[in-house]
Specification:
This protein is α+β, with helices and mostly antiparallel strands. Helix content is about 25%, strand content about 30%. It has two domains: about 250 residues, Naphthalene 1,2-dioxygenase Alpha Subunit, Chain A, domain 1, CATH 3.90.380; about 120 residues, Rieske Iron-sulfur Protein (3-layer Sandwich), CATH 2.102.10.
Length: about 400
């Protein structure tokens, strides 16, 4: 196989096949419900950064609509980050009132109190105070009424939870070689962030697919990134259910005057060539001069992209067969001067526009597929990450069905 082969990724990963992909999984209500049960309720899911709950008593509430719950991620006085269902053990009231998809708070005493009847819990989930406790009966035991814990583990500052009663793997084993490949980047050093979210009328996989290839950059991004990126991927690697690759620059592209000025004052845009001081040795192993950023996917729904001085994520949360919550978060080093701040504002506006260009295709795609007029989609070689995603999902779904039959 040569780097110039038109079918290089199919040759490298023949187990993925080359045939059309059925679109039924993107519009089937039954398939969606099975995905929620077999994938999203059993996989490790990213819900917070450690910096978001940096101090003892600080917490974040993340809504998980697909599971009809929200999770409280809280740091205890012992420094440990734990996760709990956002539900009081008394009569099921929501413990922390949510103000949106993400809610943040801090308790100096590292406790949580239900505003309905005043039950108080420690950061370890233990029930520590019950008003008028003497009125309860002898069968009532505080130690049996702790918050409902959720399995919670941390990798590279990313806080993951698993809703399964007993996860099949710990987080380290779940991430495997992907964790090694992406783990040594200094994520916490780049904490200045820009965050966007919206609800899209499309299946979560359609949203995923729109960000998982560079084939579309010369068309969809002709306005924001004209002639900036190559349509071909580099260094594609598959790590079990996870996947990664490099997106490369067109080295002959000339930035617009305003963009060129912004690039002089601050590293905030992917369209300019960066260095490699922050990059782990696992990234850009072939040492390409045109390397722009690493595009990676941690199964099932987390995209992590890293570049010199920039990292960002996309997450696609299923809401129903045809609705998805998309969250985009862009991280850079905090500006030190007004000119750096201006440069970063320019960069994030450019990135926002590009993401809008990406998302505007998704609803049209879902609506067209839902018509039933087309039963399959044909993928070309540079759409290998999409092919791998459907392959893994089908594997996971079949394995779950086989385990159920054996039981």
């Amino acid at each position: 196989m040569t780097e110039s082969s038109q079918h290089r990724w199919a040759e490298k990963y023949p187990e993925l096949g080359q045939g059309p992909i059925a679109v039924e999984s993107c519009i089937s209500e039954d398939y969606y419900l099975r995905e929620v049960e077999k994938i999203f309720k059993t996989s490790w899911l990213y819900v917070a950064r450690e910096e978001e709950v940096a101090e003892p008593g600080s917490y974040k509430v993340k809504r998980l609509a697909f599971a009809d719950t929200s999770v409280i991620v809280m740091r205890g006085k012992d420094g440990v980050v734990r996760g709990f269902h956002n539900i009081c053990s008394h009569r099921g009231n929501t413990l922390v009132t949510e103000t949106g998809e993400e809610t943040f708070g801090h308790s100096k005493a590292a406790i949580l109190s239900c505003r309905f009847h005043g039950w108080v819990y420690g950061a370890d989930g233990a029930l520590i105070q019950v008003p008028e406790e003497e009125r309860f009966y002898s069968c009532f035991k505080k130690k049996e009424n702790s918050l409902e814990a959720i399995h919670t583990e941390v990798w590279a500052g990313f806080v993951f939870i698993n809703l399964a009663a007993e996860p099949g793997q710990n987080l380290h084993d779940f991430l495997g070689d992907y964790g090694t490949h992406m783990g040594d980047y200094p994520y916490a050093d780049l904490s200045h962030s820009y965050k966007y979210h919206t609800t899209l009328d499309c299946n979560w996989k359609i949203a995923h697919d729109s960000f998982a290839e560079a084939y579309h950059v010369t068309t969809i991004h002709a306005g924001s990134f004209p002639n900036v990126f190559s349509t071909g991927l580099s260094d594609v690697q598959l790590f079990g259910p996870h996947r990664t690759c490099a997106v490369c620059l067109n080295m002959s592209a000339e930035p617009k005057p305003v963009a060129a000025l912004a690039q002089k004052h601050g590293r905030g845009s992917l369209v300019a060539k960066g260095g490699s001081a922050m990059l782990p040795p696992t990234i850009n192993p072939s040492g390409r001069e045109d390397f722009a950023f690493e595009l990676s996917v941690a199964f099932p729904n987390l995209f992590v992209h890293i570049s010199e001085g920039i990292w960002f994520t996309h997450q696609f949360w299923p809401l129903s067969t045809g609705r998805t919550l998309w969250e985009g978060k862009y991280y850079v080093r905090a500006p030190r001067t007004n000119s750096e701040r201006w440069a970063l504002e320019h960069a994030q506006l450019l990135q926002r526009n590009a993401w809008l260009e990406d998302t505007q295709t998704m609803e049209n795609t879902h609506r067209a597929i839902a018509s039933g007029a087309k039963k399959f989609m044909n993928l070309q070689d540079e759409e290998i990450l999409i092919r791998h995603a459907y392959h893994v999902i089908e594997q996971r779904m079949n394995a779950a069905e086989q385990r159920r039959e054996q039981i």
